[in-house]
Each structure stands twice: as structure tokens, then as C-alpha cells.
Amino acid sequence: MISVKEARAIIKEQVSAGNFLQEDRRILDALGYYLATAPLATTDVPGFDQSAMDGYAIRMAERGVALKVTQENYAGVLSPGELSPGEAVRIFTGAPIPYGADTVVVQEKVVRVEDYIRAEDPGLTRGRNIRVKGESIKKGQLLLAKGTRLTAAKIGLLASAGVDLVRVYKKPRVSLIVTGSELQIPGRPLVGSQLYDANSYQLMAALKTDGVDFVFLKRVKDDREAILEALKQALIDADLIILTGGVSVGEYDYVVQVLEQLGVERCFYKICQKPGKPLLFGKTASKFLFGLPGNPAAAFGCYQLYVRQAIRGLCGASDIFEQPPLAHLQEAFEKPAGNTYFLKGYFNNDWVEILKEQQSYKLSSLARANCLIELPSEASVIKKGELVGIHFLSQEYV
């Protein structure tokens, strides 16, 4: 059995050594992907001197002189035109500056009588209200670093610099195998001691939230041959396999045995933590595998704490398992030393509350939680107000 710190280090080391496949994608189809190369700007931004305000383009030397308005420049106009002495050009935000102009006076600082204007802005200086060509971005400039995750704002940046195609890391194909003879699909009647299958649904939803597009779902009973066949197929179809159930020490927990039979190398099995002690992480030459506990809350916690980070790493992220944010514990808590505890919590305004009903099979408290509170293994008494690490579950904080 290993520590949480050791488990994180092993996962990070193994995932970082993986064979990352790359592909080219249009930026509109690259949301959530990680850049495999650093894109460069194809043009200056802005591509020409343009007005930053609605007003009039003039020569600074002619401020205070009556100037004749000879044309209008608006955003998208094909030619900026030319400003002769004694003239002004009516101009709008984003429009090109006419040749010969060096200043834009805002319309509120102008007196206009018919076709003539006079600038009455004592604070006006040469170059005011003009965005110079290349002011924001220079052609050939590095826009984003390799390994950057593409968000809506970053895609907007790429588009503004003329980038349409980016090289990204391909997302892993995931196979989710949920074991348990007692499981029934929601919507169907329960028979005998059956339970509704929560793991399939919550983990599929989590994978979708994390941007995984290709998921193969397989439900199998606690039968050695059924688990063997499901795993054989998963090792063909997927880059990452996630199993739930069958990794404990019960008479019908076959997963560990089957993995050994298939030649899956066990990187670690069991962590000094509660809940989620029977977590398994393994690999083949090019595949990775997690075996999660069967209890839904424990399975979901292990997904958030370990699997999710591994997926980010396989997608090209380099910042997996960073130090979690801290919050003040709302009330004191005691536990035996030796295990790291991950408790369902609710974060609000720099403080975090330990929720009731911490049992690993209870989903009602997990549904109310927006984070998991990490209490270190060496601690036995955590005082009220003490800083503790928190791992956010709610997407509003991620």
C-alpha cells in the first residue's frame, strides 16, 4: 500500500512518458484540446492604423482650426482615403485612419456647423485615439505556448491573428467497464437485491464534462470470463480503461486476477486513503488502466482525484497534480493518523464545511458537495480555521 503522494507521482511519471498522438484541427473544433505546437500570428493586429473612438480624424497641427469634413470612414471601408490640409474625416471605431491624419478627436470634443468642425479638446495630443498597426500583435509573434488548453478566449485570440488550423494532442479513447451482478439500469424494475447502476451514469457524465469524446461503455456481471472478455476488447478499443468494482477482497472480485492473466503491469494497488483505498493503476505498452472501488461516492472521488488528472495528462497537459487551493476548515475534525482523508465538503467564501453522511456509498451528500477536502495522513486533529486543501467538483470553480 502506498501514500497519496506516491500514487500521484507514479501516475504523473507514467502518463508523461506516454505516446501522445497529434492531429490538426480547425480552431472551432479544437475547444478543450491542448496545443502540440505553438501557433504564430499570420498578420499584424490591427492590420492597419485604425480609430479607437467615434470622432474625426485630423492633423494635430490644425487643432482649433475650422476644418471641412470631406468624407466618412467606417469599419470595413475598402480605402482609407487621404486627408488634405484644412480637412477632417468623419470616422468610426475600427475604421482605417486616412493618409495624412495623425490624431482622432472624439465627437464629444468637437463643434460642428454644417460641413465644418473645430476640435475643442485642450488635452488632445498627437496620436490620441489611434490604434497603430501591429499594436496588439505582430506578424510572426508567438500567440500561445505548446501545452496550452484552448478556451473560448484563446480561440478568439487565434482567430484575430488569422490562425484557422492548429496542431493539438488527440484526446484518449476511453473504455468504461462497470462490474456488478447486482446492478440494474435506471428506469427498469428492481428484482430481489438489485441496485440501480449509478457508476455508469456519473462517470459517463464526468468524462463528458472533461471533454472525452469517445467512450465505450460495457456493463458486466461478477463473472470471471465476462470480465476477461470485456477487458480484452477494451485493450483493443481504448487508450484508457476505467473499471468500477471487483478490485476489493471479496470472493467475487475478479478484476485483479484477470488483469494479471492479461499481462497488465500493476503500477500500484491500494492507497493509504479513505475512501477509495482499493484503487488500482496499471499499464500495458501503450494503454493505461484504473480500477475504481464499486461504491459510487468512492468511485467518483477516485475519478476526480486521479483519473481526471491522468486524462488531462494524456490530452497534453503538463500541470497535473498541482497543489490544491486552500480554505479554512469551518469546524474541527479528528481522525486516526496514517490515512489521507478525502471528505465531501462545501466551499463558500474562503471557508469549507465538512458535510454530513460521509459514507462512501451515499450519493446524496456528494450531490450537495462542491469539493473534496484533503486531510493529510500525518494529521490526527485539524483545528477550526486551519487551512486545508480542497479539490473542486463543481465546474464553476474549475
TrEMBL record:
EC number: 2.10.1.1
Keyword Transmembrane helix on entry: no
UniProt keywords, alphabetically: Magnesium, Metal-binding, Molybdenum, Molybdenum cofactor biosynthesis, Transferase
Tree of life domain: Bacteria
GO function term, MF aspect, one: metal ion binding
GO terms (BP aspect): Mo-molybdopterin cofactor biosynthetic process
Keyword match Transferase: yes
A GO cellular component entry from the record: cytosol
Gene3D superfamilies with a match to the protein in the record: MoaB/Mog-like domain (3.40.980.10), MoeA, C-terminal, domain IV (2.40.340.10), Molybdopterin biosynthesis moea protein, domain 2 (3.90.105.10), Molybdopterin biosynthesis moea protein, domain 3 (2.170.190.11)
Pfam family for this entry, one: MoeA_N
Cofactor(s) essential for the protein: Mg(2+)
Enzyme class name: transferase
Pathway: Cofactor biosynthesis; molybdopterin biosynthesis
Ranges of residues in domain MoaB/Mog: 175-313
SUPFAM superfamilies in the cross-refs: MoeA C-terminal domain-like (SSF63867), MoeA N-terminal region -like (SSF63882), Molybdenum cofactor biosynthesis proteins (SSF53218)
Catalysis: reaction(s): adenylyl-molybdopterin + molybdate = Mo-molybdopterin + AMP + H(+)
Entry similarity comment: Belongs to the MoeA family.
Stated role: Catalyzes the insertion of molybdate into adenylated molybdopterin with the concomitant release of AMP.
Full protein name: Molybdopterin molybdenumtransferase
